[in-house]
Amino acid sequence: MPTFWELYKSTKFVFQQTVSSEIDFAIISACNPRGQILTSSHNRIRDKALQNDIYHLDAIYRSVYGCSPSLDFHEKSWLVGIDKIAAIQLAIKYEQNAIFWVEQGQLYLVPCLLTTESEVHLGLFKERLITSSHHCLTEVRAVDLMFA
Known about the structure:
This protein is an alpha+beta fold.
């Protein structure tokens, strides 16, 4: 079975709002801390707390889903326009193994709690985006309703 780190490397992203390609940002989740799968209600509570923390940062933020390539797993996350160090600190607060960092359109996987791993360049961020025409968007939007 692949490690979390290997699974993270194949993540795709679904956005419901557009994002400027001119900004650098982090993608952070509060769900499933340390890779432990929580119930939907526990993840919702954690997600709302993270959203509140992000709101008080006075930064650009957008809702996003990180998805497995097969789209059978998706996790609510947030795109946040803060610097990498602040993003790592926020992710550690929510017990996250890693964050995604986008700088000048390039995607990186950055360890937070997985201290034995090193930052990895994953290529162009735009190549990981799932467009609204993709069949999973309806499913992901249904999950988003659970988070409302």
